[in-house]
Fold each of these.
Amino acid sequence: MKNYFYQLVLSFVFLFLVLMPFSRAHAGQVNVIQVKGVINPVSAKFIVESIDKAEEAKAECLVIELDTPGGLMTSMRQIIERFLSSKVPIVVYVYPQGARAASAGVFITYAANIAAMAPSTNIGAAHPVTIGGGGPGSAPDTSGRSTMMEKITNDAVAYIKTLADKRHRNVKWAEEAVRKSVSITEKEALKINVINYIAPSLDSLLAMIDGEKVNLNGKTVILNTKNASIVYEKMNWRYRILDKLSDPNIAYIFLLLGMYGLIFELSNPGAILPGVVGVIFLILAFFAMQTLPINYAGLALMIFGVVLFILEIKITSYGLLTIGGIVSMTLGSLMLFQSPYPFLKVSLGVIIPGVLVTALFFVFAVGLGLKAQTRRSITGKEGLIGEIGEAITPINNRSGRIKVHGEIWMAVSHQPIKKGSEVVVEKVNHLKLHVKKQE
């Protein structure tokens, strides 16, 4: 009997040890990423790679903690296309409190398998923003931009209605969010079936969605997230740098620094370092411009302003060219990134100092460099021409000596010059100076 009891205990221990790894594996893992800021090619690439990693890890789901004012439609579509082909459920969680899912964020939230929001958050204002500007309230014009914007808006409406149908969310509100830029709170969003849950924290969200059935391309998956381990995926340093470069203010500053470097190099050939640094800054600026709604008319005005500053250095205009350069630079800076949304524009707090510093740079720094090139040489043999010296011996057309710059030189003159007379150097011929008497 005693042996039977021991055997029974050992059997339970054995079963516990064998089944424990399976219970842990069954709990699985949940991958979590944070996306904060403008939706651009960098954030799109980060999200796509995070989905790839979640698939490789066979995660229960990928949770995207979202806080965005919106972004570029091209990047948004890239993200959504990857959502729709994902082999793991996608959960978009508008978080933390005070966060928002605006513009492109609405589309991304609608495309998720599960949509959730934290308390005190909002969603909406999904009117499309495209390269070249346009937005809610854009005035019609004869250039056809209004017609083009209407086409883009209709396309965006059709797109979000498709997502709403696929994820069984409110179609009517989705259309209003695009056409009228309406926004709602998390409570309103839950009430009208825009989102699935309101959760104050990630842990509470995972507890809420535990057991949720998700359709992944025709296959039903049951989430087991209550006791899942959480794995945070973060942007690496390369993505963080590229994301910062996509800020319009930083792109603008880099553009100015690149111009400074190149112009300084051109005005002082051989300096090398300013030219190299300028090219690097310009490359970084042009990279950033690929992710922003750039207006090439604004860029042309900025370049024209630089040309006017350079002309001011070479031409006496009594400040008129400088004023023109400041006006051109200011207008170009304001027009450089054309968008109705502040997050896709350069701040006035950056533009005004940038224009003033540029004007000072060209008037003083580059001006000194150009004047130095035209200044008469004061070193070597060429530096002796025009200098005044003293005849220390009588000078004729065959011989003589003078003292100039504290040095004794052989000298000749077409007219006789007495010892002690002041002379002016006219020409340098090897080690002999041609001089004349100082009048």
Amino acid sequence: MAATPLKIGSYAGLAAALFGLASYRFYERQAAQEPPTKEQVLVGTIVQGLSQAHYQPERLDDAFSKRVFDLSLKRLDYRKKFLLQPDVTRLAQLQTDIDDETKRGTHEFLDLSTKLLAERTKQVQALTRELLAQPFTFDADETIQTDFEQASFAATAAEQREQWRKLLKYETLVRVAELLDEQDKRRDRARVASLHHLPPPAAPADRTVAQLEVAARQRVRAYYDEQFADQPNAEEVLARYANTLANTYDPHTDYLAPQRKEDFDYQLTGRMDGIGALLHERDGLIYIEDIVPGSAAYRQGELKKGDAILRVAQGAAEPVSIEGWHANKAVTLIRGKKGTEVRLTVKKTDGSTKVVALTRDVVVNEATYAQSAVINDPSGLKIGYLRLPVFYADFNGEGGRSSAADVQKELAKLTAEGVQGIVFDLRENGGGSLRDAVEMAGLFLPSGPVVQVHDSRGTTTVLNDRDPRVQYAGPLVVLVNKHSASASEIVAAAIQDYKRGLIMGTTSTYGKGTVQRIIDLDATLPATLGAYKPLGSLKFTMQKFYRVTGSSTQFKGVASDIVLPDVASYLDEGEKDADYPLKWDEIKSASYHPWDNQPDYAKLEANSKARVAANPSLQQLAAIVQRLRKRQAETVVPLQLAKYRAWQRQLQAESDKYEALQATAKPLNFSQLAADRQALQNDSALTKRAMRFTRGLDKDLTLGEAVAVLKDEQ
């Protein structure tokens, strides 16, 4: 997730001005010729704007073309199952021409790649139907490579046919194994009932492998029928290409089509306009998966989980059938501005049909917001637990919440509880508002620099916490993992550099040390091109941030003071693993004064290492992580039923071991804050949220060790 588009000095305004100026010059050139197409407008705006405003602008040359080609091909057919090698060779003839096409406003590469993929998709659709019309047998001793990065494009149609035969056989085999597992479980339940002299539970008769293969193959065909029916339209193809162009600058420079921008805003603010229904698609229908507590749909009460939405009407307008649509397309009709009406024709779970009229309102995702609780240790110590899922902020000035303000409130409540240490959980927090990160770090520190921001002009701005007050001055542990990024890394780095507390978790955090700004592309359009609105938005990297020490978190992340085993640590999911990341560097250190009452790092780390070494659960977890890392490299899967099921049982055994670890962990005792109890008694939605918040945390091995470290600090 990107750092917030924060106005730092006049640089953000300058970036916007440069963007608009570059776009204006592009339109000025186009006007001298003929009216531009939407492709020319969108691509020209993005490329010309980024050439002026990006932190590390790229020249439109052959190297740029090669990057666009490589990334486009990777995304065009990532499984390498549609295009043939001759198609790739044909496209490769254009790999150094994309810069020239962009300059002159033509898109031969995009047009040809779209045409070739559409033709091959049509051919593959016919091929899959042909292959799925015949039964598969699972006796032959053959295998399939499941890592598509190690695969190659088929040289001929015959070779492609064999690749698809294996893939469809594999997908059918997976479903056959699942159906066999279900039968085994039913037999186990019947056996248990028999031992207890109870009647066997109602269940269908067992089926042979051949019978299960028919059912499994039907599922695979239904899946592919849906996939082939959901081909992107011209707008979606253009949006994907525009995003690919943007991503060649760095992984966090993105083109956001209008709906994607709404999703992005919801992620960063926890608020959006709509009805508050979560949707999923199944068998050609759009179903209600859940209702967001407190939303318009929740208050109105007529929509229920399991209802199928058949038609959508805007106010008094004629309804539009959405049968056969995918959920992301249906969402575009159901969402809308606060105060507008939408009428949904729904099929209820009892088979009846009903029209439900709803007035759209702000949908609030409470799971986005900061929450806290108290951990009651058997020793009598009270430890505060504070979790922040994202650095949300009121970016649009619409009365939304601030993560820094909410964390301040939670710290005040925890302090009132008399906690003797706090665990601040930033695991899985991908970042968000830079401003809130600076303010939040200041809640634990006296006034002083928190982070340095460096722009492409070479100007460094130090962002300071100007409030000398410290909201919480007691022992502090910050939990991180490989998915803690951006604003999370700013806070963790500041806590570490000031020696204010301990960073615990995976070896290092994600490694995103860049700042983005979002520009509404409609604002760059001259009035003569108003017909192209809405054009979408562009999120682009305009600055890098640096620790107060001068070191960047970009690429490397923040190293933990105490490293603990984590099941996700074997995954290659950091900034360094992304396409075209900006590199690590460093600048001059800021002037800062470390915390006076520093933790005894050597003692705390030594004690933690001793505990981890003596903790069977953590040692088993470390062993599981090593086995998972080894498993990750084992990408060749057997297509013989007996061998495949044996392979699956090995994987399940690893999963069972991890679940067993969770079950045997010494449970933590959580209690709600006194300040929250009255509100919980009067609001069932808040009560459910509080229950979800602590669910599973009582057996969290990492959290348990964090509590032990805080006990050592007493």
Amino acid sequence: MEMEASSTSPASGGTQAHSYPPLRSRAFHKFTQQNLPACKAQLTPAWVITIFLVTGVVFIPAGLIFICASESVVEIVDRYDIECVPESYRSNKVAYIKDNSISKNCKRLIKVPKHMKAPIYVYYELDNYYQNHRRYIKSRCDKQLLHGLKYKKTSLCVPEEYNNGLPIVPCGLVAWSLFNDSYSFIRETVNMKVNRKNIAWMSDREHKFGRNVYPFNFQNGSLIGGGKLDPNVPLSDQEDLIVWMRTSALPKFRKLYGVIEEDLEADEIIEVHLVNNYNTYSFGGKKRLVLTTKNWLGGKNNFLGVAYMVTGAFCIFLSILFALIHVKNPRPHGDASHLYWNRKSNAN
């Protein structure tokens, strides 16, 4: 490529040739001009049929493996938000949950369907709860969670920014609506221990919630949104709050409550004593208690396996379809020698 150009100099009254600077010269490198050697696959019918067939043969067994792994997870799901409301309040659940004079204690019996090997994870599941709503999810102050009262710019926390003229720590609607149902488990008259340590992400505990930040003026207003926090425990150790503050993207979600570190045998009856404090009745929400095991693939979810199997079956279907079309209506292949890069090499 020509690297010289002409320019007119007023002093000389004529033209003067000069070279572009080195940076301009480097701009015409082979990479920028797409002159690097390349390999372009020629997708003949045989190659296309083979690719789809191999993909299907690999994906279908992989999907079966994923489904078997998912089915090996033992999961118990118990919805309790309706059953734990007294019969006389079934028609007005909101009045029940707002009346502090009514006991919120509830007992549930759950049967273990199969042997559950420890650790057994205890989750609470909420449905029709939009933690991803813009006004809700923005009502928090991450810098205040880390620095406490030292950080003053908490306007994002409105309407839970101040109470009685004093700042709230932690502020915002997300913290204010902290889930506050509690669960305890009895096995043959013996209380089962639920480990509630290390249920939050380590990165959240160490880097997002201050070790010297303590709850202040929290849930002291006339309208109580959810659970209360111990003012003598730093936020970095309040793992219930840390788990809750990691908001969900979907209206149906689970959050870790604790871990049972002992096996449960098949057909055992576990007595669950819970306190039904959290108000999901005002917006038609649902509450469930979940006990589940895990394996190398995670929890119980057949989506990945089904997706692999459907994709594999579709690929095999396409391979058969293309094979039939190729046999019935074959087309002559193009002559690769007519491709310009082959013509160029032949000319040389």
Amino acid sequence: MQTRLSRQEFLRLGGASLAGAALLGVAGCGGGGGGENTIGWQAIPSYSTEQNTDQARVDYLEEVISSWEEQNGEYTINPLVTSADVTAAMARLLEQASQNRAPDVAQIDGYILPRFYEYVQPLDDYLGDLSLEDWFPFARAVMTDGGSVKGLQFTTDVRVLYYRKDLIDEPPTSWDELFRVGEEVSGEVQDAFLFPAGRGEATTITTLLPQFWTLGGELVDDRGEPVFGEGENRQAMLESLGFIRECVERGITPRRVTEFTLETDINGDAASGQTAMFLGGNWQVSLLKEIMGEERFTRQWGVAPIPSRSGEEHATTAGGWAWGIFAENEDKRRAAVDFLRAVFVGDEGMARWCNVGGYLPPREPVFEVPAYRTDEYTDAFREHLENFARNRPPAESYTDISTALQVAVTQVVSGEASPEQALQTAVRTVS
């Protein structure tokens, strides 16, 4: 039986933000989104044919959707656009689903797909020659519930260590190696090692969680309750915050990293030659090539796993989006999966969409599809997705936890608090 979300749950996911969006008329439409032979397809603007400012994306979508409609001959696609505010969009969709008003197909932030398990339809009978094993392990983890496929992830991304190949022969793998290399190159650059440490999600998922995970830490328990301040998790968090503090105390990281709320905030330092290493995402390759010129960037910069305490275990955060199908009619569900295969999920569709959007494919075989464009960094990103990538926990408490941990990192970097004090404040904030 489907349950209605409480107002408290709705607001925790972002209902307050949604309320403002709805007043402006940008929140998504409700209901299935179409008649008997129409599939309502809901996406945020940058993934839709509606309100999308990227003409290359629009051209691709219109071309492939038109071709699919012509070949299908029975169903047409009705594009429904939701809020560009991801938190608001997901809050609205969860509210729609709880009231049995969700569109036939909807875009879902991959890591919170488990929150929709009770509402989305199982897709096992419609996958055809798509094998669940094609998806990387982190993607399979959120796509399945009790062995049943509940969504289809169609994009992803990953975080890595960028390092200057012209200054560093071998990238550091451990904390000790990072400190040593950072100190060795300090005379060559303004700041040896940069990472996001401001009030933004990048601070949690790019800077903190990879360290915390390699130390065996878990943010929440099986019920989604915060446990990062308890037992072994507490020790892992203290050591992670201590590592960040030591980077500053050793002089390889400046306190100004508290100004970096996004990975791309570091692009200026990287392009101007002011840093030797930084933590960032795969999407920065294309941006930095554009800024620096492709030849100079590829000559100077390499990528490697994010250093860990031991140098033997590594972790990184993967992101990305999934499609959930809510249509109750079996024929419409089958047609919806066929549509998604053609445009986003099948070999050719995923390759082309990842090309036009600059994403990484969450299905490993797509890396071998001729249509998928690769470069010097593709193999490294692929290795990270296969071996090191993890998802943020889907717990409702995660947003509050992440915000509290961002504050903790900022306090430690600025010298405002010790790791122990910062962690104590974070635990108290989410309790």
